[in-house]
Design goal:
Elements lengths: L4 E5 L5 E6 L7 E4 L9 H6 L5 E7 L2 E6 L5 H17 L18 H20 L2 E9 L2 E8 L7 H16 L5 E5 L2
Parallel strand pairs: 7-8
Antiparallel strand pairs: 1-2, 2-5, 3-4, 4-5, 6-7
Length: 182
């Protein structure tokens, strides 16, 4: 298979999506620092670049977060070529595939998790990020944002205007949505 790689900017200026024409992983996995990448040959190799500050994989793309002192104009082509070679060489994204999603909790919690999984996750992944459900207590849904969403200037707007409004509409018990810091 001939591997093609193209890039897409994300709402977070420090991150860029490197999209390939091959499935890399079912689900998503975040390697927010070099130490966390031990079980991923692909991520470990990316962290060998001094300008890489974060690595996130989902379906057919890898989102790379650059260091503050680097410019996309200088590093985009280098990373594009690396990603192409890594996919062609079948570098491992993670040693053990993630299990299928299982929703747990009260009826409201299961409904919230299902909405996040079916409606919110695909939209967030389009911007190179990921969202995961953490808890639901006293009307407050706590989520975790990863990939390009972590530290993104527009993530608060997305959280409040998009996700919170959707959940309030579909689950009347929801009063607020907050993001847990990593």
């Amino acid at each position: 298979m001939n591997i093609n790689v193209y890039t897409e900017s994300t709402p977070n200026p420090a991150t860029m999506k490197f999209i390939v024409n091959k499935l890399l992983i079912n689900g998503s996995v975040d390697y927010p620092n070099k130490e966390s990448a031990e079980k991923s040959t692909f991520a470990k190799e990316l962290y060998k670049f001094s300008f890489v500050n974060g690595v996130f994989f989902a379906s057919n793309f890898v989102t790379v977060t650059k260091t503050e002192d680097s410019n996309w104009a200088d590093i985009e082509e280098i990373l594009k070529e690396f990603v192409k070679g890594a996919v062609e060489s079948e570098l491992t994204v993670q040693e053990v595939e993630q299990e299928e999603v299982a929703f747990e909790g009260t009826d409201s919690e299961i409904k919230i998790q299902q909405i996040l999984h079916d409606y919110v996750r695909p939209a967030v992944e389009q911007d190179g990020g990921a969202i995961s459900y953490k808890s639901f207590n006293d009307g407050v849904v706590t989520v975790e944002l990863r990939g390009s969403c972590s530290g993104c200037p527009s993530s608060t707007l997305t959280l409040k205007s998009g996700i919170e409004n959707l959940l309030k509409r579909m689950v009347p018990e929801v009063q607020e949505v907050v993001s847990e810091a990593l």
